[in-house]
Q: What sequence folds into this?
């Protein structure tokens, strides 16, 4: 079974703090993703990565950065947390192994981190 | 642009059948996914369609019409544990990433 873990389930930080959210997957997946989920807005992609040291902006990258130094680990960084970054953050991973089923890049999600910025 | 529409909320009774619709307009199409998400938990993969037609998986089935930009998830013999949000997501052509709808919250009552 694919396992995606996130460093914290709940986190409370103060405005202006630097925040690190970490995600680890154990399936040797090439692709990793960071989303935030807000009521009425659904899942929105912040950043994603296709390979080690590689990153690409998603739909809402402002105020965030990421790091992928190892294949299994993808970190989301809030350089200076703000109250509008209070949200549920979800990490996901998927494979890029070629195949015919189309399911190769099904995304598997971690349990989420509920971040509150005061 | 990318646009995926689902109803916000639905209610149904235990033992009944419910159909959750999803319409999409995306720059390309290379598959549609349905995920289930219980409150406070991670989304979990339910089904995948890339060709037109119905895919059946136990109590859950998913249908796709690419010409209409339309999919539905059919849940039969509803159980209380089916109360959750159901997320429709489209994979645009050539991209690994998914575009998600805002989800449909299903409440199953006794």
A:
């Amino acid at each position: 079974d694919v396992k995606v873990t996130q460093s914290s389930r709940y986190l409370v930080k103060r405005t202006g703090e630097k925040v690190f959210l970490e995600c680890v997957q154990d399936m040797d997946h090439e692709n990793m993703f960071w989303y935030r989920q807000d009521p009425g807005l659904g899942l929105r992609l912040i950043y994603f990565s296709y390979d080690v040291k590689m990153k690409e902006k998603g739909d809402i990258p402002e105020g965030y950065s990421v790091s992928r130094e190892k294949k299994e680990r993808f970190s989301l960084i809030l350089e200076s947390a703000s109250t509008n970054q209070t949200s549920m953050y979800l990490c996901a991973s998927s494979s890029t192994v070629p195949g015919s089923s189309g399911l190769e890049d099904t995304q598997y999600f971690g349990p989420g981190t509920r971040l509150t910025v005061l | 642009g990318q646009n995926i529409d689902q109803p916000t909320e639905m209610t149904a009774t235990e033992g009944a059948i419910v159909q959750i619709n999803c319409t999409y307009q995306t720059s390309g199409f290379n598959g549609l996914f349905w995920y289930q998400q219980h409150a406070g938990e991670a989304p979990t993969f339910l089904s995948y369609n890339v060709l037109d037609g119905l895919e059946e998986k136990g109590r859950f089935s998913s249908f796709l019409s690419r010409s209409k930009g339309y999919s539905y998830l059919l849940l039969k013999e509803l159980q209380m544990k089916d109360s959750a949000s159901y997320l429709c997501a489209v994979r645009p052509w050539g991209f690994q990433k998914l575009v998600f709808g805002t989800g449909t919250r299903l409440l199953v009552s006794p």
Notes: The two ends of chain B are 41 Å apart (CA to CA). Chain B has a mean pLDDT of 93.
